[in-house]
Amino acid sequence: MGENSWVLRRGVHNPTDSTPARLPYSVRRTTAVGILRPDGHEGPLLLHGSGRDLGTHGDGSPVQFGNVHSAVEIDFVGGRTVVSADAGQAGPDLTALVGARAGSGFRSALAAALPDGAREHSLLHRVLDDVPVATVISGYALTREDPAVAAVPVPRTSALPRADYCAGFATGGVFIGGIESNGTAPVVIGPSAPDFVHGPDPLAWHHMDALPAKGMRRLRRIDVRGEGDLVVDAMFRDSYVDEHCIETVVHEYHLDLTARADTLEIIRAVATPRVLPWPECSGAVAAVDRLIGKTVLNVAPLVGAEFRGVGSCTHLNDLLRSVVDVAELSTKLAALH
C-alpha cells in the first residue's frame, strides 16, 4: 500500500455552514475555548475561554442570563500542569487549580475549586470543563506547524500506541493501519471552516476574538426550547488556523435530543458526525441509543463509566457529557414563559 493511501481514506467532511435562527421561547448557550501557543511548541499553552447564556422571548427580544471569561495557562512541556487560572473580577477564585494536571484528575480538581453556585452544569463549569480536551487536541497544531513532529517514528511493538482506545484508533483502521504500514502516524487535513458565527443575527453567538494563525478553538452551542418536551440542538466544532490564516475543521459533531420537561428523561437522541479525521470514527454514533430512558443528569456518569473502546469516540463523549447543561438551561427557559 502506498505511503499516502491511508491518509486519502479520510472520515466525513461535511461541516455546518450556518447557525440556526434563535426561536421564540428558547435559550442558547454558546462557549468558546481559544487554544494558543504564543511561544511555539516549547512555550506554555494558553486557553482563553468565553461563554454566554441568551434567552429569546416570545416576541423575539433577547435577554442575557449571564456571560463568563476565563484564562488558563498550561505548562505543556513540563507535565501539562496548570500554571495559572483566572475567571475575571466577577468570577470565583481559581487559584486552587494551580498545580493540577490538565488531564486525568482535572475535573475532580475543578469540582473542588468551584463554589456550589458555579459547579456542574453552570456556564463557567462548561468552559473550564473543556480544559483537558483542549489540551489534548492542541497537539494537532504541532503536527501541522512542524512536519517533523508528525514524522517521528512510532515504535513497532506488539501493542500499538492507543490501539482500540476509540473507534478512530481501531486495530486495522486507517490510523493504526497507517502506523503499521509506514511507521509514522498519518495526518489528515480537514475541510475549510465555514463561518457560522458571523451571520445575519449579530446575537447568534457571543463576542469572541478572531483566531490568530497557528491557533485552535473549540466552539460549542446548545439550544433548548419547548414546554411538555424539551427539544435540544447541540453541537461542537474544533478548528485550526494555519500560517496562511486558512481555518480548517478538525472535529465537528451535532446532537439532536428530546427530553421530558418534568423529569428530564431522554426520549430521543441522534448524533450526526459532520467532520471526523478517520472513516472508522463515525461508528461510535450507535452508542447514543443507550441514552434513551436516562435523565440528562445521568448522562455524564454513564459516558464516563461505559463509553469506551472501539464503540466510542472521545469527542462525541465530550458532546454527550455536555447534555447535563440542559438541566440549568431548562430552568432559564421556564423563566421566559
Structural account:
By secondary structure, this protein is an alpha+beta fold. 23% of the residues lie in helices and 27% in strands. The protein has helices at 5-8, 106-113, 123-129, 131-145, 147-150, 174-182, 296-306, 314-321, 325-334, and strands at 26-36, 45-56, 62-75, 81-86, 216-225, 229-241, 247-260, 266-275. Strands 4-3-2-1-5-6-7-8 form an eight-stranded antiparallel sheet. A hairpin with a 5-residue loop joins strand 3 (62-75) and strand 4 (81-86).
Low-confidence stretches: 1-7
Helix share, percent: 10-25%
Strand count = 8
- What form results from the Cα inertia axes? globular
What does the largest sheet look like? Answer: 8 strands, antiparallel
Q: Structural class of the secondary structure composition?
A: alpha+beta
The largest sheet has its strands arranged as: 4-3-2-1-5-6-7-8
Q: How many separate helices?
A: 9
Alpha carbon gyration radius: 20 Å
Instruction: State the order of secondary-structure elements, H for helix, E for strand.
Output: HEEEEHHHHHEEEEHHH
Distance between the ends: 61 Å
Average of per-residue pLDDT values: 89
Task: Tell me the β content.
Answer: 25-35%
Topology:
Layout: H1 5-8, E1 26-36, E2 45-56, E3 62-75, E4 81-86, H2 106-113, H3 123-129, H4 131-145, H5 147-150, H6 174-182, E5 216-225, E6 229-241, E7 247-260, E8 266-275, H7 296-306, H8 314-321, H9 325-334
Antiparallel strand pairs: 1-2, 1-5, 2-3, 3-4, 5-6, 6-7, 7-8
